[in-house]
Description:
By secondary structure, the chain is α/β, with parallel strands linked by helices. The chain has a single domain (4-64, 90-97, 104-119, 159-300), classed as TIM Barrel (Alpha-Beta Barrel). The protein is 39% helix and 17% strand. Strands 1, 2, 3, 4, 5, 6, 9, 10, 11, 12 and 13 form an eleven-stranded parallel beta sheet that branches. Strands 7-8 form a two-stranded antiparallel ribbon. The termini are close together.
Amino acid sequence: MKVRIGIGSLPTEPASAGHLGFDELVDALEERDIDSLWLPDLVSTDAVDALVGLAYAAGRTRKLKIGTGVLVLPGRNPVLVASQLASLAALAPKRILPAFGVRPARGRERQLYPVPDGARAAVFEESLVVVRKLLDEPRVTHHGTYFHFDDASIGPRAPGRLDLWLGGRAPVGLDRIGRLADGWLGSFVTPDEAAACRKQIEQAAAAAGREIEDDHYGTNIAVVPPEATEAQVAAALAGSLDRRPDLDPELLVVRGWEQARQRVRQYVDGGLTKFVVRPATPIASWRGFLDQFVQELQVLEN
Length: 302
């Protein structure tokens, strides 16, 4: 199985500076032969829109793979999402990596993705079915609970099949991955938890008469760079505790590159091969972070 390690969205220059710096970041990733860039779906921030950034980065590069980490699907029109993904995959074959989630990373943004009360999970599943059908079939008629259309088609179409990955770690979400998705991109999970998640996904897939490829399991890793201050480390640990109050944050936040290498190896032992590395604290220079990443982690790819 091929181990691949990509980069999560890194902070560039603020918009107020008159230059986002996203173009330079994309160029730097391509020049360093970094596997992939993963863009978060954060609407009410200075971050570049995930789908717009994906299209821009794909058009600017020839090798870099670009993914969404993760794109909120409920609240979006799944036909339009399928059309956008199909066009992107046709323009940048084998380089588009869509991963979807149920809820925004920030709870206050949920109102920006409107769905009927109490129906977010159900809308997510039906949306995923619609996207999958449109990507796979030349013409689709669908009459479900939330979406209705006749004889719809999208294009252009890319060669091969576009895999759809999902995030999440709740049992119901892992079961959904086994039934409907092509891969898993976790976050805030320990290596032991990740191995258990993979096992549950495999069991759900087998029960549905499906099989997920061995190298379609991955997770995010938050790394505290060596130059981080004690105050920044404390803030990173507190942020992890907000997301996983049931766990000691030291189990999730990785301190330094040596520990990052150890953590990757632990995940690999548990059956994961795809990783998205993000800084857990503010960084003085994203170029410096990338150089450290290349020297310390890229050597683990095979």
